[in-house]
From TrEMBL:
Pfam families: DUF7918. PANTHER family: BETA-LACTAMASE-TYPE TRANSPEPTIDASE FOLD DOMAIN CONTAINING PROTEIN (PTHR36223), TRANSCRIPTION ELONGATION FACTOR EAF N-TERMINAL DOMAIN-CONTAINING PROTEIN (PTHR36223:SF1). The lineage of its organism: Eukaryota, Fungi, Dikarya, Ascomycota, Pezizomycotina. This is DUF7918 domain-containing protein. InterPro entries: DUF7918. It comes from Sordaria brevicollis. Residues 9-248 form the DUF7918 domain. It comes from the Eukaryota.
Length: 275
């Protein structure tokens, strides 16, 4: 489970095909390099001395469904930020390859799993999108067919849980329309800038009913900045090996006491110019 010391009792994780994904840590310097600038966050007393960002890597399994898990069973942090006389509370948003869902109020004292979202409008209809991993087609020396802007391309291979502070307005309204996720068919190798991204998020979409009326919430921060971000970068196990997140497996060699790393024969031959 990913945690932040500044938000004790809150745990965030990813489940893949019904099983909790194993999380792999990265070097603290890498985390610091990837963390958003401090000014990107709405500062609260709990996060005054820390950049409220955590980074983990997980294994993606193309074709398998996944979900976000927010465990607030033991979370009881109170926030001083007030708008009028109303106490601020946490709302969450999930981001997948840069596609962001609507925010939802975090339920204190409960475990919530989120495996789908709704988008659409009254004119064209509404759809439910269930999350799963797919294999990404990386095209060598080609911009691909993703039609993503450079900033969006850098979001490929990333799942995020983003936390905001909001207050209740006491008003209810029908859900506004929203655009659905943009499919990523392929992406150019150059767009990935050396990252071993080999998977993507796909959506199993089906028609659904119009979302019910929901209570309106107001952002505490006028710039709509989050208070914390949990990021999970996903790769297949092969991709995790390529980015050196997970060491290559070792095997026992007969007649030797020492273990040796498994060597990719094709890679070695390419180095020697034999292919």
């Amino acid at each position: 489970m990913a945690i932040l010391l500044c938000l004790p009792g809150l745990e965030v994780a990813i489940e893949v095909d019904g099983q909790r994904a194993r999380e792999y840590n990265v070097d603290p310097e890498e985390v610091q390099k990837c963390a958003p600038n401090e000014l990107s966050f709405h500062r609260i007393p709990q996060t005054d001395r820390h950049v409220p960002y955590v980074l983990k890597y997980i294994e993606a399994k193309p074709g398998k469904p996944f979900c976000f898990v927010l465990d607030a069973t033991n979370f009881n942090v109170k926030f001083d930020d007030m708008v009028g006389a109303k106490e601020a509370k946490i709302s969450t948003q999930v981001s997948m390859d840069g596609f962001k869902t609507r925010t939802r109020r975090m339920l204190i004292g409960r475990v919530v799993k989120r495996d789908c979202c709704k988008t659409g409008n009254d004119a064209s209809g509404w759809k439910k999108h269930t999350f799963r991993f797919g294999r990404l087609n990386v095209v060598e020396g080609n911009p691909g067919t993703s039609q993503l802007r450079p900033q969006q391309a850098q979001q490929c291979g990333s799942l995020k849980v983003i936390l905001f502070l909001k207050v209740d307005t006491g008003r209810f309204a029908l859900s506004k329309g929203s655009s659905g996720p943009m499919p990523i068919h392929s992406i150019g190798e150059k767009e990935l800038k050396g990252r071993a991204v080999d998977s993507k998020v796909e959506f199993d979409s089906e028609p659904t009913d119009r979302p019910r009326s929901v209570e309106q919430h107001q952002f505490v921060d006028p710039q709509y900045r989050p208070i914390a971000v949990f990021e999970f970068r996903y790769r297949t196990m092969e991709g995790l090996h390529q980015e050196l997140i997970v060491p290559h497996p070792v095997v026992d060699v007969k007649g030797e006491d020492k273990k040796q790393q498994v060597i990719d024969v094709e890679d070695e031959y390419e180095k020697e110019g034999k292919f």
